[in-house]
Amino acid sequence: MPTMPADAAVRAAPQAPERRWRRRHVVAAVLVVGWLLIGVLGPFLAPYDPDRTSLTADSVPPFPPGPEHLFGTDQLGRDLLSRLLHGLRTSLLVALAIRLLTMLLGVAVGLAAAEVPPFAGRVLIRVADVFLALPPLLVALTITAVLGPSLPTVTLAVVAIGWPEVARLTYAEARRLRATDYVEAARALGGTRLQVVGRHLLPALAPQLAVAFSVGLPGAIMYEAGLSFFGLGVQPPDASLGTLIAEGRSFVVPAPWMLVVPVAALAVVVVSLNIAGDLLVPPDPRRRLRLL
């Protein structure tokens, strides 16, 4: 039976984990991009206008699932599938905007804390620690209660509770990278702080930041849904996963599908995005520890 030469086996051994990791990246990208496409194209796939009612003198909604309404209707006779697709779009796009703003603010603060003089850097990180010590949901509820329920308020509230973790991660990794030979060589050759950050630190931080972005996206969806559920986010008649769940809780007995459908959709979205985040984590334990 032919055997693989020793040198070929040595070359193939480290390539197998890398190929598996690349395949995991592809699966993760498909999951994330697939949900984003559903969020963007969902309203075009909806069979009905989400605000169109179907009230008649002979029948009183909510109507159960059937050929005309696959997921049934709500208490006003509005097609639940159409409202779910519009709600997914709202929740996904709001969560994406929240996570992008969170990453931008956290990365900016973390890099600034690593590059400014030590005293100023410690002050910035202590500010992040203060935010981390506060109960996240209480902070979000306080901000939305003071500023009033709206999408911009929800965005501000969730960004306020999410940026400290990103800042902490960025600060720790930037401090570690500053001690590497190539960064010290770049500084010795006359590179400015902005040049070192843009050409060396940010590219080296990109894998960790990609993981942080994907891992935090499901949490942003949950926070947006929770605030909308309590009436502090998206306002009716606009639909989001949180508002659909809030509407369905009052009809658990007469129309259970009104609660089951949006809860199941939220669970599937969050679980699949969590799986995507896990797939992005490097298989090497030493690299994984650097992400914590």
- The domain count comes to 1
Taking Cα atoms only, what radius of gyration do you get, to the nearest Å? Answer: 24 Å
Strand content: under 5%
- The level of helicity is over 70%
Write the layout of secondary structure elements.
Layout: H1 6-12, H2 15-45, H3 80-115, H4 118-133, H5 136-147, H6 151-178, H7 181-188, H8 193-229, H9 241-248, H10 257-280, H11 285-289
Helix pairs in contact: 2-3, 2-10, 3-4, 3-6, 3-8, 3-9, 4-6, 5-6, 6-8, 7-8, 8-9, 8-10, 9-10
Short account of what is shown:
The protein is built from 11 helices and no strands.
Characterization of this structure:
The protein is mainly alpha-helical. The protein has a single domain (30-45, 70-289), classed as MetI-like fold (Orthogonal Bundle). It contains eleven helices and no strands. Helix 7 (181-188) packs across helix 8 (193-229). Mean pLDDT is 83; it is low at 285-292.
Task: Please name the defining characteristics of this protein.
11 helices, single chain, 292 residues, mainly alpha, MetI-like fold
